[in-house]
Amino acid sequence: MIQVNGLTKDYGARRAIANLTFDAEQGEIVGFLGPNGAGKTTTMRILTGYMPPTEGTATVAGYDVVEESLEVRKRVGYLPETVPLYTDMTALDYLKFMADLRHIPNSRERAYETLERVNLSDRADGYIGNFSKGMRQRMGLAQALIHRPEVLILDEPTIGLDPAQVVEMRSVIREIGKDRTVLLSTHILPEAQQICDRVLIINKGSIVAEDTPENLQSRLVGSQRVILRVRGDSDGLTARIAKIKGVHDVEAKSDGSIEFEFAAGQDIRPQVAKAVIQGGYDLLEMRPIGLSLEEIFLELTRDNASGKKSS
Amino acid sequence: MRNIWTIAKREYDHYFISPIAYVVAFMILLTIGIIFAINIYFFMQNAFQSYGQTPDMSALTGAFAFLLVLSVPALTMRLISDEARMGTLELLLTAPLRDFELVAGKWLGAFLFILTILAVTLVYPIILNSLVNPGIDQQLMMSSYLGIILVAAAFLALGVGISALFTNQVAAFFVTLSAFVFLWWLIGFPASVLQGSASEVLQYLDMKTHFYNALNVGNIKLADLVYFVSLIALGLFIGTTAVETRRWR
Fold this sequence. Notes:
The structure holds two protein chains of two kinds. Chain A is an alpha/beta fold. Helix content of chain A is about 35%, strand content about 30%. Chain A has two domains: about 1-220, P-loop containing nucleotide triphosphate hydrolases (Rossmann fold, 3-Layer(aba) Sandwich), CATH 3.40.50; about 225-290, Alpha-Beta Plaits, CATH 3.30.70.100. Chain B contains 13 helices and no strands. In chain B, helix 1 (about 1-15) crosses helix 6 (about 100-120). Chain B is globular and about 70 Å long. The model of chain B has no long low-confidence stretch (mean pLDDT about 90). Classes of the chains: A alpha/beta, B mainly alpha. The interface between A and B is medium-sized, with 28 and 23 residues.
């Protein structure tokens, strides 16, 4: 559905995205994850036919975004980061206008149906200027959905929403993503984990990692490191822990704490706790350190070096 | 064509909820009304003293053209600049809509609004026609109205084009006003001072001569029509190019 090949965009001397290559299949929700200024919006603007790339090609639904821009725009629904609304129009009039621009027959009925879909039908005659942030975001989504597009491109769809609205927006996106291609950008990791089938981590205009959220986690978090603290002296405990199956790299730190690792996915902390108690030690603390998806993300996006975190 | 109409219709509707549009309409209609009343008064005075000419509409249409210089910038300033400021331009530029259709639609919407105001002023020739025996010169009246329509269309096209160059509507207003003042008045001075072909070119560019000396006195010439149509094309071209340029920045 979406194919991006060697996409590069320069703003004057500044390179916003460099040699980006990825694709997205039908029925797939792809998350575009990256810090602000990483090039997410630029990529989306190119895919929606808003601006041409400096180099490289991109096709959406089989049409080139530069050569067949109008065909692409007919098939793409786009929610920009700043939700583009005419505040002096009513919700229904606004959607009818968007439907007319897309030559939808019976545009008024379609506008009403779309309002129902985003739960705003009770405010059909309300002026958009009086809408809350969450309602405006839903109006923006309605505008992107009105022509039932094959491809949906959403730039930060949950930004500025309250927690209940975020949950609602995510469920709407998941629902839509069942039979359509959705490309959404976010800088919220749990969001990408929850909604997306696949995640692209982008930083400084390049993709630094690409996989399913689960694979990304297990691939990047080869093993889980845990810090353990007991009251008083921890002599002998190191050896005791090292004996537990699955534990490796046990290390007694100078401050009396002990660090050890185990393979991600097989949590053996209960066994460790048991061993500590059976050994007569008072367990004060045991917590995993580092390498949550958040930290991987930070790690990958801090410097431009890609690659796996060595474990 | 359908897209142009969709954009034009939204723009036309928008004028009826916009305070600036009401102020402009009020200013134009009030001024025209006062001028009409004064004209009738003087024609009647002259008629009692049995001299003077038959009253016609050229004084009113002449004033209308002058008012356009001041009011069109207020009507066109926000047309595209405000879309850019509010971010809705991104919506229109990612909709299946050609850049030209967007610009032409904006122009058409504003043009229809001016035509609406102009339609209201048709009460004056109707009143005048009933006062004058055997009626006013209708050919002259139609020529004058055609002149107004062409001046408005040309000004609006230039206004839309200039609006597309800006994100700030106040900047668009003043640049548009300056362009109109230049085309309407300032260009006449070098045209009268210079000699030879430079003078002829400048004279041709002087908009008021195409109106006051031609259409508003019932003289419809191809050269004047070409002049106005060229300006409309120029304005829409500037607008389309400016919108396209926004995509590249």
